[in-house]
Amino acid sequence: MTPQSIIDLLSMLSDEPLLVTDHQCVLKFANASAYRLFGQHIDSQPLNHFIRHPDFQLAVRQVARDRQISEMIYVRPSLPSQEYKIRCLPFGEEDVLLAFSDLTQDNMNEKIRTDFIANVSHELRSPLTAIVGFIETLMDGAAQDPEAVERFLPIMRDEAARMQRLITELLALSRIEGDEIRPPMTPVPILNAVRQAISAFEYRADEKGCAIELVSSLPEEYSPIVRAEHDALVQVFHNLMENAINYGYANHPIYVRLNFSEPLTAQARPSNIRISIVNSGDGILPEHIGRVTERFYRVDKSRSRQLGGSGLGLAIVKHVAMRHGGELGITSTLGKGSRFTLNFPLSRIMEHVPQDQAQSQA
Ligand code: ADP
To answer: Is 292 in the pocket of ligand 1 (CB under 6 A)?
Structure first.
């Protein structure tokens, strides 16, 4: 086997860049991804012409001399910077094979993981600190003061409830993320899930003077069916309606609009159903819109906390939508309000048999 055919074979097994140099560190072979990374001009060039790192050259020479495998980390000064682990292996009589593996994605995943742990700890720490503070105050004598007890206990309960909500949402998110690769298969009449969520929030909306109005452009005799997990769908509508109430103006209606992606005709069925939750309100600045579905991202942290928010609601919505093969779209106009639109692929559209007709048929 020639060195080039070995490189070709290795390239078929991996997309990562591969280089072969002679013992003087002059390039002899490169695969397609190495050319993509360093450019087409590298043929027969000394390594230090395109990898400007003094230790690197030394390490390669050492492998050429000692015929021992070695590893090193190479940070490529690009924007954003890319980090590679490079394995240097003796190749043939006196050449060296350099196999790159890109650590950039691993590093990003690690950062997401550590940020997540920091966020969770931070979110749990503040209610816990408050609860511990109140317990100590009560133990220091305030327990004998009925007025203080009456004032502290509801705060302690609310703080504990905040932790409980956060943990419930974290568990929901982790379950949804774990299930992402298994699409749900149960046929669910999506209107039922929407109506269930509306009934759950009618009272709270009413308290703020906001009626929740269902505006449907679907023909009444049809029931759209999606392949879904019913409870996850209800949860998604819950989260969106809760936000519409929390961040919307008082005394303004909240609209839940339903329509098909294309008109329903005798010849053609629409492919998707769209459900939009629309509220009047201050709206969201464009630079925040792309980020509000990130875990723990809030436009106004203290406002969200005051409203009992965990910062996980929209992350859950996004993941559930993805798991159902759907999408979440967000549009907002400052000073006017926001619209959150879910788009789900339709499994089928069932024709209702009206109640009285069904009875007379029976
Ligand atoms: P939270 O628990 O903070 O409500 P979410 O993930 O549900 O967390 O939402 C993230 C952020 O997006 C909120 O903190 C808020 O800043 C913004 N947001 C969500 N829904 C709306 C809305 N209907 N109108 C304006 N801002 C919203």
So the answer is: yes
